[in-house]
Amino acid sequence: MSAQEFTQKAYDYVIIGGGTAGLVLAARLSEDPNVTVGVLEAGANRLGDPLIDAPNLFLQLWDKPEYDWSYKTIPQKGTLDRVHGWARGKVLGGSSAINYNMFSMASRQDLDNWAELGNRGWGFNDLAPYYRKFETYNPPSKILSSKINDKYVDPLLRGTNGPIQISFCEADFQWQQEAWPETCMNAGYPMPKDPRSGSALGGFNQLTTVDPKTLTRSYAARNYYEPNKDRPNLSVLTEALVAKIVLEKGSTGEAKATGVQFIKDGATHTVSANKEVIVSGGVVNSPQILELSGIGGADVLQKAGVEVVVDNANVGENLNDHSATGVVVGVKDEYPTAEVLLRNPEIAQQAMEGYLTHKAGPFTNAPTTTGFASLKMVDPELDAESHINALVSEYQKAHPDADPAGRAPLLAKQLLDPNEAAGQIVLLGVGADIEKSHTASELFIHQAPGNWITIGVCSTRSFSRGSIHIESSDPTKYPVIDPAYFSHPLDLDLASRSIMHVLTLTKYEPLASKLRKDENGDLVMAPFWTKGVPKTLEEAKELASANTVTEYHPVGTCTMLPKEKGGVVDSECKVYGTSNVRVVDASIFPTHVQGNIVSLVYAVAEKAADVIKGKTANGVNGTH
Asked: Lower CB density within 10 Å: C or N end of the chain?
């Protein structure tokens, strides 16, 4: 539809952002035929695009303006002043359209932290029904089951009729999928349990967001929007960049949203909102939109030339991301890795034809090999309690105002819990050149001869916190992104211990005999890291500083907390100082959670839809 057609209607709910969360809300709110819903999305509708649909072509989407915002951070002191490219979906479906398709689960304590911090109704038991609501679990065939070892999955904990399809790939199988779980078991890892049980320790193949019937990506546009697109009470306008929420001060002193101003085809338009405006722009766009609208810290807004409507300096703060450190090691020639496709256009073309014609081959198979390790598993010799507490209290003394919510003691306690993961390990069948961190699409393109794997050492709950703020009132100008990687000493410490730990994993079969060794029997490290295999914690810290990137899981910039503890929204997702503006997306996560976050974004959006409908009483274990 045109902008004129869109604005001729007035909507009960105007949703800013047709991404992962926004399309869940649009589908659920428009279930009521008496409610009208309008969605504004900056990207295009690319349903049916084979680059999105193919589960393992996501790198082809990054840094292309028709799919990706292609954000950049400011130089990061903790990573040798490198700039980091942040791929974020600029397309209908948001980042669920361009992510790795990896599917994790927050731990019980991850979500109980939210409730402990003052968000009644957002604990593990409250969100469990919503995880089941959004998904359909597709069990593998007996043949695949024997290869990938899916015994840890408990079908009784999984959803059976939700929109998002999750599965293991039947159309392609890679050697590391068989080698990884056995290697972890031989290294002494516990037998994994279904992460839905509340804990996810061990090494296993995790599920992916792929529909096994069509072998296509299962994402918000395909599974929440497309089945409902013909509802007369749902309108979606794509390629529409939101400029600001139109606010007026009510008699109570609270700001009331009356509509949303947006730009399409070079012209500015305004659409009316009768009930609410819901911001689902994601971790970068949501705080940007609030600040452009006059909701934010007075200092930030005045510098950017924006009139202050609601003064809340918490907007854009509390940015928290997962870091991923790449340990890149050589693999023997007989074990194929993605370098084969990257270096040989003919083979890549054959693989593409195999996908398009037969839905077969490597482009059907998204990454699955992952593991979660507790601090006790990572470093059994460490006197963990005194070490962690010393680093946390030292940082808090130096930065007394950094943690008004009291997150650090909660996270420190969680680190010491033997059932909680201190880190995630992701094995990727391709080498990564981390020096290219500024351009996300080039990370896995390199000239090092031979085959390589990258063992990614990823944080689960970083202590470092940064910010995202506007510098201009111009909505086309990107905000300043500062994730502050490794600004908290505990993050670098944990990364270095995790590096030393994964190096011990490479000594266990069946992985060990597949890796190349040099004349001294050491692993062959990729040539872009010239200092060899780290032998000490200090050397591992050097590797971490030089070889860390984002895991593309930023959260927290419109955090759900009591306002005095740093909050932007309350436990009903309502923005403080407004009567009818909410934020629903990963920006409201008050603390980080382990693993890939798309599953939690779906669950949070499902619950938020019920909150908006008045169907759930917060604090009553997800009953509705």
From this structure: N
CA distance 435 to 79: 10
Torsions phi, psi for 204 (to 5 deg): -160, 175
Whether 453 maps to a domain, the answer reads: no
347 CB-near residues (< 8 Å, 6+ apart): 340, 341
Name the phi and psi angles at 611, rounded to 5.
-60, -45
- Partnered with residue 267 across adjacent β-strands are 264
| Count of other CB atoms within 10 angstroms of residue 227 | 11
Q: Domain limits at 597?
A: 3-50+221-319+555-613
How far is Cα 353 from Cα 363, in angstroms, rounded to an integer? 10
Structure tokens at 577: 């100082």
Angle 588-594-595 from CA coordinates, rounded to 5°: 100
Give backbone dihedrals phi and psi of 563, rounded to 5 degrees, phi first: -55, -40
Q: Which amino acid is at 3?
A: A
Q: 242: annotated binding-site residue?
A: yes
Q: What is the mean pLDDT of residues 608-619?
A: 82
Q: Which two tokens stand for residue 544?
A: 């971490």
Question: At 620, is the pLDDT very low, low, confident or very high (cuts 50, 70, 90)?
Answer: very low
What Rg do the C-alpha atoms of the chain give, in angstroms?
Answer: 23
CATH code where residue 585 lies: 3.50.50.60
Burial of 251 (C-beta count, 10 Å sphere; 0-12/13-18/19+): exposed
User: 119: closest CA among 598, 621, 570, 551?
Assistant: 570
In this predicted model, what pLDDT tens digit does every residue of 321-357 receive, in sequence order?
999 999 999 999 999 999 999 889 999 999 999 999 9
Q: Specify whether the CB–CB gap between 272 and 246 falls below 8 A.
A: no
Residue 102 lies in a domain: no
Position 550 scores a pLDDT of: 98
505 contacts 329 by C-beta, under 8 angstroms:
no
Asked if residue 130 has pLDDT above 70, the reply is yes
Model confidence over 509-519: pLDDT tens digits? Answer: 999 999 999 99
Q: Which are the contacts of 253, defined by CB distance < 8 A and separation ≥ 6?
A: none
**DSSP secondary structure letter of residue 201:** -
What pLDDT score does 624 carry? 30
Evaluate whether 181 touches 203 at the Cβ level (below 8 Å). yes
Report strand pairing: 369-373 vs 202-205: antiparallel
Number of domains in the chain: 1
How many CA atoms, within 13 angstroms, populate the side-chain half-sphere of residue 213?
Answer: 6
Enter the tokens of residue 345: 């256009």
Q: Report the C-alpha gap between 412 and 31 in whole angstroms.
A: 42
301 within a domain of the structure (yes/no): yes
Sequence-distant (≥ 6) Cβ neighbours of residue 91 within 8 angstroms? 43, 44, 45, 46, 52, 66, 67, 97, 98, 221
Report if residue 378 sits inside a domain.
Answer: no
Give the span between the Cα atoms of 10 and 36, in whole angstroms.
8
